[in-house]
Design goal:
The complex is a heterodimer.
Chain A (H helix, E strand, L loop, with lengths): L1 H14 L2 H27 L5 H7 L5 H34 L2 H4 L3 H4 L6 H41 L4 H6 L4 H18 L1 H13 L4 H20 L3 H10 L8 H6 L3 H10 L3 H4 L2 H5 L2 H23 L4
Helix pairs in contact in A: 1-7, 2-4, 2-7, 3-4, 4-7, 4-9, 4-10, 4-14, 7-9, 7-17, 10-11, 10-17, 11-12
Chain B lengths: L2 E12 L2 E12 L3 E5 L6 H8 L6 E6 L8 H5 L2 E4 L11 H11 L5 H9 L14 H12 L6 E5 L7 H15 L5 E5 L3 H4 L5 E6 L2 E7 L3 H4 E6 L1 H8 L5 E5 L2 E7 L3 H5 L3 E3 L3 H13 L1
Parallel strand pairs in B: 3-7, 3-8, 5-6, 6-7
Antiparallel strand pairs in B: 1-2, 1-4, 8-9, 10-12, 10-13, 11-12
Helix pairs in contact in B: 4-5, 5-6
Classes of the chains: A mainly alpha, B alpha/beta.
Chain lengths: 308, 285
């Protein structure tokens, strides 16, 4: 069972190269942006990024520099989060559709692997493999960005060991980001389950068939009941910042200044994540149940549909 | 003899269409059975039921298992090629071997690699970069490396040229068949496998037309080549089917006394292809 799952997940990574290409591309873009920023500073003498300005300012207290570094890294991470959001959705849409499109489903089904094992491997890929691949990209991007800023600081005569490497809360940030990246698919679970079901069911155009009901049903609800409950639920689910794990941060506010002042009191991002609230949240568990229903439907469709 | 496949009153309907209609047969261990039928006869549906890819009515047992409900267990001891094009194009040959090795308990990677070393298939090539013949060689190298008790081939050589087709069947016999294993095969190129088969099954319109061994064909069926008045007299014996060949009449008889028929012309044992046409057309006529 575990051997099969590992082999199936490895197959997913072989087939869906976007799982590692996307984080690699984002890491490249964020690194190039850091290079461009440093070049712009060298050329125009003006630092456009306020976090970098604080990091480079020798008069800024150590605690504020640590906060500025953490916010700089989190800003960088946001790009990865959005990329992973799209990656997860498009992966699920393709996961059970591509094998029918290229007719390889008959080959996969000729092996001693159940339909349930196959669908579970798709869920595990989106829940574990994609976040971990994204985290690898985040780590590489953070290190490259910090190295680039260090080189620039050194060229300005500052000591990067003091300004960057001695101050940056790297491991705390990485643990917090890993937790967030793993929480995102759990939060998006009902939508990912829905997309997986559509990818097993749709004969063509899975994207349209997946998105249309999500777009139309809230409008119908509004027309018929003059209420917006479904729309709000879907929008809340689509948004990463509404995750219960951010409840403590949400109370403090999502504005960068709010975040700065919140972190200046307690620099540990890990301690600001609301694990208990996330794990006991009815929304999270209800979402997982919905995901389970759609995934079961996907298994049923894969098992009973005649592909000839 | 041990029945590896036992079908009793097996039926499968799609809406009002009965694709397989009350079919019963057995396939015994160590046999090479050809399953033949015209397009739409129900062959593929029947094979899918045998492979657990679709549910059906009636009693169907393959290797003592219920194929639909015990598909995973069944697939450990059964291999099939449903069509030459089903291997995924994106995968590399090496990855494919890795995957099968990790998921199939009865697969020998060493055996696959031995077989592939005799071909031009490169291990770092993607399947989509291979010719159709090479894809078939790759697929065959995988399934023949599985220590399976039953091999099911559904039009395995479709779209291949004659050299690859000959090679395919030659490899099948040399590398897979050992008298202990069992093969079930469907193809429209009946004449190419006529000498391989030990048994044949014909189906048409979802119904079983014939289920017999190749050995017993000669005693059950005879083909008469005749003309003129002899043809009229032979016709009174009730041929299964009659056709014209170069101005002569060729009649296929079932279960008649050879001595009786021999008085009217030249006798042959019908080829499987001719018998197939006779049974299908005879049933229709």
């Amino acid at each position: 069972m575990i051997t099969n799952q590992l082999a199936l997940m490895r197959r997913e990574i072989w087939e869906h190269r976007s799982i590692w290409i996307t984080p690699a591309a984002v890491a490249t873009i964020t690194t190039l942006m850091a290079v461009a920023m440093v070049i712009a500073v060298a050329a125009f003498g003006e630092i456009l990024n306020p976090d970098i300005e604080k990091i480079a300012d020798a008069t800024v207290p150590e605690s504020m520099r640590r906060v500025a570094l953490a916010v700089f890294l989190l800003g960088n991470t946001t790009v990865f989060l959005f990329a992973m959001w799209f990656l997860g959705i498009f992966y699920c849409l393709d996961a059970l559709y591509a094998e029918r499109k290229d007719k390889s489903i008959l080959f996969w089904r000729s092996l001693p692997i159940t339909d349930a094992e196959t669908v579970v491997s798709k869920l595990l890929t989106v829940a574990i493999a994609i976040p971990l691949a994204t985290m690898a990209g985040v780590i590489v991007s953070h290190l490259l960005n910090l190295i680039i800023v260090s080189i620039w600081l050194a060229s300005e005569g500052a000591n990067p060991m003091r300004f960057i490497w001695g101050a940056v809360p790297l491991f705390d940030t990485w643990i917090a980001v890993t937790t967030i990246l793993l929480a995102v698919p759990i939060w998006l679970a009902p939508l990912l389950g829905w997309f997986l079901f559509i990818s097993a069911w749709a004969k063509r155009g899975p994207l349209l068939r997946a998105v249309l009901p999500i777009a139309i049903l809230p409008i119908l609800e509004y027309i018929v009941f003059r209420s917006w409950t479904l729309g709000e639920a879907i929008l809340s689910r689509l948004s990463i910042i509404t995750m219960p794990i951010f409840e403590s941060i949400a109370k403090a506010g999502f504005d960068e200044d709010d975040l700065q002042s919140m972190l200046s009191e307690n620099i540990s991002l890990v301690s600001w994540l609301d694990y208990g609230r996330f794990l006991t949240s009815i929304e999270v568990w209800a979402g997982l149940v919905v995901c389970g229903i759609f995934s079961t439907a996907a298994i049923y469709v894969r098992r009973y549909r005649d592909e000839s | 003899m041990t029945s590896l496949v036992s079908a009793r009153n097996v039926s499968k309907s799609f809406g009002s269409v009965r694709a397989v209609d009350n079919v019963s047969f057995d396939i015994e261990k160590g046999k090479i059975t050809g399953l033949f039928g015209p397009n739409g006869a129900g062959k593929t549906t029947l094979l899918k039921a045998l492979l657990g890819l679709t549910d059906c009515d009636g009693d169907l047992s393959v290797l003592g298992l219920d194929p639909f409900r015990q598909r995973k267990e069944l697939m450990k001891n059964i291999c099939f090629i449903a069509d030459v094009a089903v291997l995924p194009g994106w995968i590399k040959v090496e990855q494919l071997l890795d995957f099968v090795e990790a998921t199939h308990p009865n697969y020998s990677r060493k055996r696959s690699e031995e077989l592939l070393s005799r071909t031009k298939v490169r291990k770092n090539a993607k399947v989509r970069e291979l010719s159709k013949g090479m894809v078939t060689q790759l697929h065959l190298s995988i399934i023949t490396a599985v220590d399976a008790r039953l091999l099911v081939l559904d039009e395995p050589t479709l779209g291949l040229d004659i050299i690859f087709r000959k090679e395919f069947y030659s490899n099948l016999l040399n590398d897979y068949f050992d008298g202990e294993r069992t093969i079930l095969i469907t193809t429209h190129q009946v004449e190419e496998i006529e000498n391989l088969m030990t048994d044949i099954i014909f189906i048409n319109d979802g119904r079983l037309l014939l289920d017999t061994s190749m050995e017993s064909l000669a005693s059950k069926y005879v083909e008469l080549v005749t003309s003129g008045e002899d043809a009229d007299r032979a016709r009174s014996l009730g041929p299964l089917y009659e056709r014209d060949v170069f101005g002569k009449k060729v009649m296929t008889f079932e279960g008649v006394d050879r001595d009786k028929v021999s008085a009217f012309g030249e006798l042959h044992t019908p080829s499987v292809a001719d018998l197939f046409v006779a049974k299908v057309m005879g049933a229709a006529g």
